[in-house]
Amino acid sequence: MAQLSDDCFAFGGPLRPLDETAALIASRLSAVDESETVPLTLADGRVLARDLVAPLPLPPFTNSAVDGYALGGDDLPRDAEKTFAVVDRIQAGMSPHQVVTPGQVARIFTGAQMPEGADTVFMQEDVRIDETGRIVLPPGLKRGANVRPAGEDIQMGEAVLPAGQRIRPQDVALAAALGLTGLEVRRRVRVAVFSTGDEIVPPGSHRGPAQLFDSNRFMLMAMLTRLGCEITDLGILADDSELIADRLSEAASAHDLILTSGGVSTGEADCVRAGIERVGTLVFWRVAIKPGRPVAMGVIKGTPLIGLPGNPVASFVTFAHIARVAILALAGARPQPSISTPLRAAFSYRKKEGRREYVRVSLRNAGDGSVEAVKFPREGAGLLSSLVATDGLVELGEEVTRVEPGQTVQFLTYSSLL
Ligand SMILES: Nc1nc2c(c(=O)[nH]1)N[C@H]1C(S)=C(S)[C@@H](COP(=O)(O)OP(=O)(O)OC[C@H]3O[C@@H](n4cnc5c(N)ncnc54)[C@H](O)[C@@H]3O)O[C@H]1N2
Ligand code: MOO
């Protein structure tokens, strides 16, 4: 079909490249200042406010990695079996009772502190007990075997988690292992969320014949929750730029970010841009990304606003690649570029040069041990089923113009985008 306006230059000037857009956002937004201490049970997903330095080594004491017998390395059998007297029994949590000297072993259990004089442990399966109750050890074990030295995991004073870390379950475990009961985290980013459009009504309300139930607001709030934000749900705004301007202006004073969906394209009823310009300034509008080209950013009374396009897939993709950058910057999180995985395409595709495209795909086993990406059969940015039925997005760079089956493409899981 004939294309009347060239994508890249319609409405004046080339579209802004996605990487440049993300860099602009990250450089313009600074992190919220305030922090709070939260108990470890509430720390998952929060952003660490300052570097965490280990107040003790891990493990804190040298201990046995197995159930067995501990002895000094100089006493290890070299060429033939050797017999030893058992002089101690050390269970986990108990301090050793005596020094182990040559000719002696201590019975020891996994996690128990190593006794003085011992630096090696035989696994109990590898030893024999003779008729007098003495322990017979075979030759061949190396000094230091089956022992976990103090500090082998973490040294005291080591920086173990950097400020800006989005705390994960394993980070919580580390803090607990270091004896901490809470972590100092940045306060949550406060985000106001609006849907826009006269055709949008809330689920559960009466829907007129030409109206749609609002799905974007719920998708965006779920995505914001995954990013640890404090959300204010401000409902649906009618297509009226004066009203939109008033509501955006009100929201700006109490939030770190305003997120809208819909109303950023070129139609007369696309009032979000007009609303931004009434009470603030437009930072950018239109990015070289598909879906999601009409995405906009503005600033209202110092508060950033990201206007996502209304089509649900465009909203999803621009949230993941643009709004997320803003949220992480405001949250004080270290930038987290999404790491894509190379996979084999099982589809052919044509695209325009000069814009980044995200293609919805499902993964399947190719049968030869590799995994391949199967494209969702339809492309509309309004197809929610396309997001629900797929596993992630194939990212096609600005320079790409075609994909053929068998070609290597870069895949991003949906979970890696949040
Ligand atoms: N003449 C042109 N028309 C359009 C262009 C263009 O460049 N020239 N761009 C198209 C692209 S690309 C997109 S994306 C859409 C986005 O436009 P808007 O952000 O202004 O979105 P709306 O027009 O308000 O809505 C688009 C579509 O999405 C539905 N929608 C909106 N909000 C919701 C919601 N909260 N939940 C579910 N669905 C929603 C809305 O009903 C429309 O069907 O513009 C193209 N047009
Ligand atoms: O690019 Mo729009 O964002 O098609 O849906």
TrEMBL record:
Q: Which GO terms describe its molecular function?
A: metal ion binding; molybdopterin molybdotransferase activity
Recorded source organism is Pseudaminobacter soli
EC number(s) on file: 2.10.1.1
Catalytic activity annotation:
adenylyl-molybdopterin + molybdate = Mo-molybdopterin + AMP + H(+)
Please indicate which superkingdom the organism of origin belongs to: Bacteria
Stated role: Catalyzes the insertion of molybdate into adenylated molybdopterin with the concomitant release of AMP.
Cofactor(s) required, per the database record: Mg(2+)
**Which one GO biological process term can you cite for this protein?**
Mo-molybdopterin cofactor biosynthetic process
Look up the signal peptide feature and give its range.
none
What CDD domains does the annotation carry?
MoeA (cd00887)
What pathway does the UniProt record associate with this protein?
A: Cofactor biosynthesis; molybdopterin biosynthesis
Q: What is this protein called?
A: Molybdopterin molybdenumtransferase
